[in-house]
Specification:
The complex is a heterodimer of chains A (about 160) and B (about 375). Chain A is mainly alpha-helical and about 160 residues long. Chain A has one domain (about 1-155). Chain A contains five helices and two strands, in the order H-H-H-E-E-H-H. In chain A, about 25% of the residues are buried. Chain B has a single domain, classed as Catalase HpII,  Chain A, domain 1 (Beta Barrel). In chain B, strands 1, 2, 3, 4, 5, 6, 7, 8, 9 and 10 form a ten-stranded antiparallel β-sheet that branches. In chain B, helix 2 (about 50-60) packs parallel to helix 3 (about 155-165), helix 2 (about 50-60) crosses helix 7 (about 330-345) and helix 3 runs antiparallel to helix 4 (about 175-185). The chains are: A mainly alpha (about 160), B alpha+beta (about 375).
């Protein structure tokens, strides 16, 4: 869903056809759906234990794993909020469909809009790069180290 | 989940060639994902027309005026209201069409690319209107005083700009290019015929402003009706320009007219006949058409655009309330996409507007 959103976002800024309109109409409700899901996910994450990393993992890799997780959560949470805020700051009605409207969360202001709109774009690239790094690291665990990490990512905690 | 053996101990290290293959596989997966992304965002697809390219071409043709709209940069903010008579409520369930009053922030402008153009530079005037319904939904419409658009597609629009803009080296338009473009684009004929007879008017308030693009009205029972709309002035007929009032005579005329009293236009909806094409802004809908007068748009105040509420509004034609939808006209999505780029660029430059000396005066 998140990856789809990044691709949809990239498509929006690069097309002038009806696809632009269609992608934008997908992007907004999906963003709010992700925001709701990420709140649930954060609650789950905070109330359950995460599977331990392999005990022999080098310190820098543990650090990278933790940092990238914090970054992924922060971006999943921030991106929909920034999107919502930037539409508000533009003075546009926040329409999720032809009839469904959310309240504005910021007063209209040109400079605030411009800051948030740029942040939304740059953070999307950071998000995509972080996901690529996450993917590469997961494959490194699966194919090179051949440890339990990929298994625990895909199937949840292994209770024996 | 299948039972598994504990696998906490490290596996034996991979051999050199096996390690290389696996590392390369990871690299390949990442490369494919990154390539897909750069294709979608247009980097690997230079043939594709992007919103940024449209705005780049406008900037190339017009020159750079930081903080201003990339098209129609010279304008005046107006405020007022729309009094709906309820006649269009059967066609569309948009709140703006039920009987009653909707507040309006508009912008009357000159369709050139330079905020310092004299008002006589082009015979066209434009009116952008934002209706804010009581339920918070909005309807934004950018209208022009010409009856048709010169071209039907976004690419043709960019090509038209390129063919009619000055060469950066000579500072002049290559005389061979515009005729070549118009010859290759016979759809421009209706516009060219109109523009030959059009003269710059002396007033914003005597002009008719047309949506040009088609839209679709959706009624509460789901009926869909394609329409175009126009703001038709109640003020007298077209007057010649008072050039003695200087290059900004439209603004002076507007101030004088509004000082005398509110200025009114009727919002006329023209209903497409069954099967009529809605995707070609270069063609007028000819022959008999049903029209509906939806009510009166009233303007009762004007304020310079740098101080007015219209400055920070992106008059995106696809900001529509429930009950009005876009049509299959390809210009609509392109306008929406390009306006968004223009809006981001100019909102990033508003600091330069307020610190510039003389505000509206050319340095």
């Amino acid at each position: 869903m998140v990856i789809a959103m990044l691709f949809i976002g990239a498509g929006i800024v690069a097309s002038v056809s009806e696809r632009h309109e269609w992608l934008l109409s997908l992007h907004k409700p999906l963003g709010i759906a992700i925001l709701l899901l990420v709140v649930i996910r954060l609650l789950v994450r905070l109330t359950t234990q995460t599977p331990p990393l392999p005990s022999n993992l080098p310190y820098w890799q543990i650090l990278a794993a933790k940092a990238s997780h914090y970054l992924l959560y922060a971006l999943m949470f921030a991106m929909p909020l920034i999107g919502w805020a930037m539409i508000s700051a533009a003075g546009d009605p926040v329409m999720l469909s032809h009839s469904m409207q959310l309240p504005s969360i910021l007063a209209a202001d040109a400079e605030t809009f411009s800051f948030l709109r740029k942040a939304h774009g740059y953070l999307a690239y950071l998000f995509f790069l972080t996901i690529l790094a996450h993917l590469a690291a997961a494959l490194f665990h699966a194919w090179i180290r051949r440890d339990d990490v990929m298994q625990s990512m895909l199937h949840g905690k292994d209770r024996r | 989940m299948p039972d598994r053996e504990p696998q906490n101990q490290q596996r034996p290290p991979l051999g050199g060639s096996s390690l290389a293959t696996r590392l390369a596989s990871i690299g390949l997966v990442i490369l494919v994902a990154a390539t897909a992304f750069t294709y979608v965002n247009g980097t690997l697809d230079p043939q594709r027309l992007t919103p940024a390219q449209i705005v780049n071409q406008l900037e190339k043709s017009n020159g750079s005026f930081p903080g201003y709209r990339r098209n129609h940069p010279k304008g005046i903010c107006v405020t007022g209201y729309f009094d709906s008579n309820g006649a269009a409520a059967l066609l569309s369930n948009a709140q703006v069409f039920s009987s009653g009053r909707t507040s309006v922030i508009g912008r009357l402008a000159l369709p050139t690319g330079n905020p310092y153009s004299p008002d006589s530079a082009v015979p066209i005037r434009s009116f952008a209107v934002q209706f804010t319904q009581a339920n918070g939904q909005q309807w934004r419409s950018g209208m022009n005083s010409m009856p048709v658009f010169p071209v039907a597609s976004p690419q043709a629009f960019v090509d038209l700009l390129a063919a009619t803009s000055p060469d950066p080296k000579t500072g002049k338009v290559d005389p061979a290019k515009p005729p070549a473009f118009f010859a290759a684009h016979p759809e421009t004929q209706a516009f060219l015929t109109w523009v030959k007879t059009a003269t710059p008017s002396g007033s914003f308030v005597t002009e008719t402003y047309n949506s040009i693009n088609a839209f679709v009205l959706v009624s509460s029972n789901g009926n869909r009706q394609a329409v175009r709309w126009s703001l038709v002035p109640e003020a007298g007929i077209h007057s010649a320009a008072d050039v003695s009032a200087g290059p900004d005579y439209l603004q002076k005329d507007l101030e004088q007219n509004i000082a005398k009293g509110p200025q009114r236009w009727n919002l006329i909806l023209t209903l497409a006949n069954p099967g009529e094409p809605t995707n070609d802004a270069t063609k007028e809908w000819s022959g008999p058409h049903k029209t509906v007068n939806a009510g009166a748009l009233v303007v009762n105040a004007d304020i310079p655009q740098l101080q007015g509420a219209c400055r920070d509004i992106n008059y995106d034609p696809l900001v529509l309330p429930n009950g009005i939808e876009s049509s299959d006209d390809p210009l609509l999505a392109a306008r929406s996409a390009a306006y968004a780029v223009s809006y981001l660029r100019r909102t990033s430059e508003v600091g330069q507007l307020t610190t510039a000396p003389g505000l509206e005066k050319q340095p």
